[in-house]
Amino acid sequence: MAYDKNNIFAKIIRGEIPCKKVIENDFCVAFYDIAPKAPVHVLVVPKGDYISFDDFATAATPEFMNGFFKSVKEVANKLGLKEGGYRIISNHGKNATQTVFHFHVHIMGGAPLWKM
Ligand code: AMP
């Protein structure tokens, strides 16, 4: 599968579609999920053409990966989730029900989550 530059998250990064932003830096944009599955549900989306986690882990530089995952932590802390706890998930492909083919990490928290 080729990366589609017109996927919804690419449009959000380019500012073509609005979002409820939490942070933006050189590595990512983080914004609230439009259909939250937890009291706090935020997506962290890297600035780069990465289809999924597998693509990101293959193509991103170590420096970029480091900056991105530090940003995930920064977002969780900014949302006040560190103390109570939170879950991070990334769906890769069909069996995981990935629907937007631009790599993203879900951060969920704000209340006890379902047991895995
Ligand atoms: P996934 O199923 O892992 O690909 O996750 C895609 C997520 O993007 C879902 O949780 C959707 O609710 C969310 N989503 C889709 N469109 C938007 C949007 N315009 N703004 C915020 N979240 C979105």
How would you describe what is shown here?
It is built from 3 helices and 5 strands, in the order αβββααββ. The radius of gyration is 14 Å and the shape is globular. The mean pLDDT is 98. 26% of the residues lie in helices and 22% in strands. The longest helix has 17 residues, at 62-78. The termini are far apart. The chain has helices at residues 8-13, 53-59, 62-78; strands at residues 21-24, 28-32, 40-46, 86-89, 105-109. The protein has a 5-stranded antiparallel sheet. It is an alpha+beta fold. A hairpin with a 7-residue loop joins strand 2 (28-32) and strand 3 (40-46). Residues 8, 17, 19, 33-35, 43, 91, 97-100 line the site of adenosine monophosphate (AMP).
